[in-house]
Amino acid sequence: MPRQDPKVRARNFNEVALGYTHEMALKEANRCIQCPKQPCISGCPVNIDIPEFIKAIRDNDMPEAVRILKRKNALPGICGRVCPQETQCEEVCTLDKKGAPIAIGRLERYIADWEREHSSELPSSPNLPPSTGKKVAVIGSGPAGLTCAADLAKFGHKVTIFEALHVAGGVLMYGIPEFRLPKAIVQGEVNYVKSLGVEIRLDSVMGKLATVDELLKDGYEAVFLGTGAGLPMFLNISGENLNGVYSANEFLTRVNLMKAYLFPEYDTPIKIGKKVAVVGGGNVAMDAARCALRLGADKVYIVYRRSRVEMPARHEEVENAEEEGIIFKLLTNPKRFIGNDQGWVTAVECHEMELGEPDASGRRRPIIKEGSEFTIEIDVAVVALGTTPNPLIPSTTRGLETRKTGTVVADEETGKTVKDRVWAGGDVVTGAATVISAMGAGKRAAASIDDYLKRK
Amino acid sequence: MFKIVTKEKLCPVVDFFKIEAPAIAEKAKPGQFVVVRVDKVGERIPLTLADWDGKEGTVSLVVMQVGTTTNKLSCLNAGDNILDLIGPLGLPSEIENFGTVVCIGGGVGVAPVYPIARALRQAGNKVITIMGARSKDLLFWEERLRSVSHELIVTTDDGSYARKGVVTEPLKELLEKNKEISRVVAIGPAIMMKFCSLTTKPFGITTIVSLNSIMVDGTGMCGSCRVSVNGVTKFACVDGPEFNGHQVDWELLFARQRIYLDEERRSLELREAHHCQHS
Asked: Which ranges of A266-404 would DSSP assign to H, the alpha helix?
């Protein structure tokens, strides 16, 4: 798939991957052998009928391809871009054993982009069943909440989404940068969910404005919690509160949601570092590092305590980061941040690490090499260690069971929590995971809620 | 969109706004704040509630012009809309019958002190209020604060009205002569809250301050507002904004308040060229 040149794209926020042309999509679709076992479908967390939409592309029937895709997935423009297909649908593709798997994600993206460009020629809203007259509240408008709401609306229920921020989309808006996921595409898919009759109430911090119990008393027959894992983790080392040290959530929220990269046309400022260290090895760390570079940093380091193979980030994003000139300091762990007398960070002191035996996560445990301390000069640091669920809802909801990590306990298949009429799914249940797994959870919960409402 | 019902100039650089926000008004409690975003290129800033009326469905904010966003706000009038108003956020003030409480409001901090003093009085406390401003023309809400206080002391730094000096002077006198004081609540510039805390410390009297650190979302997802209290990092937006002033790391708060001074100046320069045409 064509991409922007690394040298050029490292200084702009435009989308890196440019998408398939029609000819490329057709060529790729023609590689699919339409195997009878269809392992790709079970590899997809929302079980899209992949061979079927590929066949529609081949038949040059794009409206049909859109219809097949949207039957299972309300947000294909997003999934085609950010899903880790290499560990999902593409990993189990029959062709994977005989060379390269079908580029299912790219084809999905091609269909979604085609639909957006041809929206005027397509029916404006899908056929919906008659209203059941039942109201469901969905808390959070990230991938889990949007998917759950879309499916519930398709079942004929009246859905209201409550969103704390001033735009809908959750991590798709504040977390994933424009150059990986253009915000216009996210808002396009949010508008599709609205076109199904879903009402989205922004600026509504649940737990503060109303509790879950109040919603249940207030005429909502079921509540779905899709509040994500938005609470940043810090290293808890000395100097972490120095000026210039950000959580990845803060850094990315300023850049993506508040458009601080367009300061001062936009009012939200950000400290632009010349030398930036990003601590962590996940997708969020890659996003933060690549944002720092685009803001104009000369040197951006990824500081990660394990080695390259243990990095949880997508391979493609690590490669993109490398091409753009991000410097990887692997087997390196911060010991403390060092600041000047004005309270600004000037360096990070690190330990070298070595890998020991595998730990509970199955990855080899990093061990400090004694006496290996060295410092890296920096003026901005971004801590991207991961996130845990925000306690606002659990702490204000009676009878919800949570784990030590703050995640809400819910049935894996149905998303049902131990609390009557309350379901949950996505990162609030699993801890920080992927967009598509949150969508899968939203989908399963919608089916379970529908089942409950029908039997009621 | 949140409609401005009333706007009133309290002094040349301070405006009062009454805003239609029924859901927030119904839930608001003393000590809580809202996050405001004026327009679509706007930033999110926190403002502590000055008042609310659940029946009327309004919340009140008192805003001092100090930079881009507060200047944009000052350009708005009754009938205009504020794009986003999010709240009520933060933990409410602890309101109990403590006995005798001294409430201190410095500068624009007079406004958020008002509902706290009122609630403390309703809870049965004897409320002594000290309000301070740099000079007479920056004073507002004297009568309003008097109406919820058993005793009111007014100071101006330059002596242009009432008692000359800063709020910590009458505070110290009160603490020396009045043994029943069991709690102090101080809201204003960080430097004032620090010195109020230093004044009460030798007397061992719990001193509650409302920390005004930099915020983005105001819901606990970013840690921009982090402060150190008793050696532990806290998020002012969800763990506060009120903390025990004797436990606050004031130097850290001052340093973190200065993070964007250069950017704030640049933004202001860009906007000032067309003041009040940009909302």
From this structure: 283-294, 315-324, 392-396
Residues 166-195 of A with CB under 8 A from B: 166
Residue B267 has pLDDT above 70, yes or no: yes
Helix (H) or strand (E) holding B199: helix B190-200
Instruction: Give the CA distances from residue B242 to residues B93, B208, B232, in Å, rounded to whole numbers and listed in that order.
Output: 7, 6, 15
Q: In what order do the strands lie in the sheet with A245-247?
A: A245-247, A380-383, A275-279, A299-303, A327-329
A231 touches chain B (CB under 8 A): yes
The structure tokens 């753009």 sit at: A324
- Give the torsion sign (CA, A103, A106, A109, A110): negative
CB B233 within 8 A of CB B211: no
Residue of B nearest to A211 (CA): B27
ipTM for the whole complex: 0.95
CA distances from B251 to A235, B185, B239, B254, B257 (A): 21, 20, 19, 5, 10
CA distance B108 to B66: 11
Asked if A342 is an interface residue toward chain B (Cβ–Cβ < 8 A), one would say yes
Is the model's pTM score more than 0.90?
yes
Q: DSSP code of B136?
A: G
**How many angstroms separate the CA atoms of A416 and B1, rounded?**
35
- Smallest CA–CA distance, residue B45 to chain A, in Å, is 10
What are residue A191's phi and psi, to 5 degrees?
-65, -35
pLDDT tens profile B141-168? 999 999 999 999 999 999 999 999 999 9
Do the chains contact at A264 and B270, CB–CB below 8 Å?
yes
What is the Cα–Cα distance from A400 to A416, expressed in whole angstroms? 11
